[in-house]
Task: inverse folding
């Protein structure tokens, strides 16, 4: 007999009836039926029902245990009566009559239940994550994550990519999000940075001649968190040599489509090639560079209709260089005025000035905008937009950036409120043709808008002859259901183009040499054209698991304040650790300075005595 088990808790079937078996696992549930105890025994693989009656020496032992205690059961497999078969359980046709039990570990009172799908405060779930991971939904998510990574790895290798590992301890970069810094013991006052991405290293692998690289790369960014963002995350990082944008798309689309199709669980998945949407069109028609194509609503610019209008507010906005964008609300004939007012109130809660609207029922227009603009002009606008006699219309007006943001958010909100979002679908698109530069209103200067290492479309000639704000880059994002899975680009591999691009953004040649010395020197020694991307593993799994929060698909996530409640990180360093790293905390430095000046240390806990 095996020490702990002959079978897992998902293995036994009708054919095993009559066998003597040994199972080990956690006591998932207990049900006392008056002298007969039913126990659901759970392990990683599944659940088997254990029965202990008054003739079984296991009965008093099992009866005295709390759920989640770990036990080993010896017993005989028996067929369930026809009326007690559980068709929802793979082992539902049998049960094991317990003849003996060994308690491996007794569980104390649980901080949260494992059986069932009750909602529990996230703080408790993360503090006791090892218990939370026993819950079926979370457990399945983590298994799904492993399966997705395995599938991605096999598909990348099938496309001719070779897996490499890049360093975790590197140099800080002035571009991108805030770094996590690691102090050096051997080099006082100097710091390593954890990688925000293996960007430079993977490009250097292309310069080194490896052609097609990938890795499941850990990345770290010290930035504010949200539902789809974690300070520590993984991405399918890849890079290719001697490729155009089209060839990058052709390589990664079968990988993404294949893995989503494999784990779609009946949902519709867009086939490759995925739709391509220029950035300018995405911002106009969807109000975001992360469009959710499950939503059929499209935004339109109607600014010209209000150049001369009885509605003075919009006329003033357009005359001052602003825009008016509209979002249709189809077939709202049954909606009361409250629906439209609630949308306006929602926009104000989101920090916007307000969301105007027009109602239309049976061809009759309603609302202040329609009254002031006039029925004839409103009919002309509706005809141009292809709207019907019972369709409403929402208006986002103001400076272009604010109007775009409000229109995008309102498109999503209207789609949700009117239940227009396509269910059970995974819709992909590429957003392409990003602007190379943008104007930073705070710094009052031109800066990079996306990735500074991207190749501008038109290369050096474009940088020298075009307005910087008109230059497009070979940059692209892959988006699914409104989530950006990754950003990528065809890289700028020519030093003279890189110097010029950084000069436009206000960086001197010497700064480029100092901050990006490894890359710029490599490019001076023969670099191939190359490009790539890095789809986020966590977001892929989040979409496939149909979870709204990325923390549900990470085994040991941090909370929204980047704290590990289970292990107590971040934690204070001991004085010895700080000395070894040549670090003095600000409070220690202040105390030392005060003592050096002969100042008396004041005990703040005694003030007021």
Result:
């Amino acid at each position: 007999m095996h020490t702990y088990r002959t079978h897992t808790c998902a293995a036994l079937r009708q054919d095993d009836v009559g066998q003597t078996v040994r199972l080990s696992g956690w006591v998932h549930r207990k049900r006392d039926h008056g002298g007969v105890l039913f126990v659901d025994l759970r392990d990683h693989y599944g659940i088997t029902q254990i029965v202990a009656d008054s003739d079984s020496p296991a009965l008093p032992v099992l009866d005295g245990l709390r759920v989640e205690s770990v036990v080993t059961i010896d017993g005989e497999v028996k067929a369930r009566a026809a009326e007690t078969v559980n068709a929802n359980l793979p082992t539902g046709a049998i049960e094991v009559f317990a003849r003996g039990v060994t308690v491996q570990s007794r569980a104390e009172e649980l901080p949260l239940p494992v059986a069932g799908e009750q909602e529990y405060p996230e703080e408790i779930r993360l503090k006791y994550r090892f218990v939370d991971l026993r819950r079926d939904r979370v457990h399945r998510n983590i298994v799904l994550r492993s399966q997705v990574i395995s599938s991605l790895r096999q598909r990348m290798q099938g496309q001719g990519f070779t897996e490499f590992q890049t360093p975790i301890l590197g140099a800080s970069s002035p571009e991108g999000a805030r770094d996590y810094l690691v102090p050096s013991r051997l080099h006082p006052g100097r710091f390593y940075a954890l990688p925000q991405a293996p960007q430079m290293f993977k490009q250097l692998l292309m310069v080194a001649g490896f052609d097609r690289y990938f890795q499941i790369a850990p990345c770290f960014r010290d930035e504010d968190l949200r539902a789809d963002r974690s300070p520590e995350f993984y991405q399918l990082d890849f890079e290719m040599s001697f490729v155009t944008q089209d060839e990058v798309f052709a390589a990664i689309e079968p990988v993404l489509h294949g893995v989503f199709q494999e784990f779609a669980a009946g949902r519709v998945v867009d086939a490759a090639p995925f739709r391509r949407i220029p950035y300018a069109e995405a911002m106009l028609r969807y109000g975001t560079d992360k469009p959710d194509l499950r939503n059929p609503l499209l935004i339109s610019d109607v600014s010209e209709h209000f150049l001369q209008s009885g509605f003075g507010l919009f006329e003033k906005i357009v005359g001052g260089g602003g825009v008016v964008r509209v979002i249709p609300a189809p077939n709202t004939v049954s909606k009361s005025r409250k629906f439209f007012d609630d949308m306006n109130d929602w926009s104000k809660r989101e920090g916007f000035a307000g969301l105007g609207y027009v109602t239309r029922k049976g061809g009759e227009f309603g609302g202040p905008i329609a009254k002031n603009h006039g029925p004839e002009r409103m009919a002309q606008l509706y005809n141009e937009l292809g709207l019907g006699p019972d369709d409403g219309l929402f208006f986002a007006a103001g400076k272009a950036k604010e109007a775009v943001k409000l229109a995008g958010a309102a498109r999503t909100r209207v789609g949700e409120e009117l239940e227009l979002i396509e269910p059970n679908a995974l819709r992909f698109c590429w957003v392409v043709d990003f602007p190379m530069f943008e104007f930073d209103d705070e710094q009052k200067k031109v800066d990079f808008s996306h990735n500074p290492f991207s190749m501008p479309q038109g290369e050096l000639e474009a940088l020298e002859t075009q307005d910087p704000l008109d230059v497009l880059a070979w940059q692209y994002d892959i988006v699914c259901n409104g989530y950006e899975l990754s950003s990528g680009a065809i890289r700028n591999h020519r030093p003279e183009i890189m110097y010029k691009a950084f000069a436009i953004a206000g960086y001197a040649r010497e700064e480029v040499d100092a901050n990006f010395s490894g890359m710029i020197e490599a490019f001076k020694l023969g670099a191939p054209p190359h490009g790539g991307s890095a789809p986020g593993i966590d977001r892929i799994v989040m979409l496939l698991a149909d979870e709204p929060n990325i923390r549900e698909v990470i085994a040991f996530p941090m909370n929204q304040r980047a704290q590990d409640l289970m292990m107590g990180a971040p934690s204070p360093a001991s004085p010895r650790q700080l000395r070894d790293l040549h670090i003095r905390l600000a409070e220690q430095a202040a105390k030392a300075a005060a003592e050096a000046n002969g100042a008396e240390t004041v005990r703040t806990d005694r003030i007021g005595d």
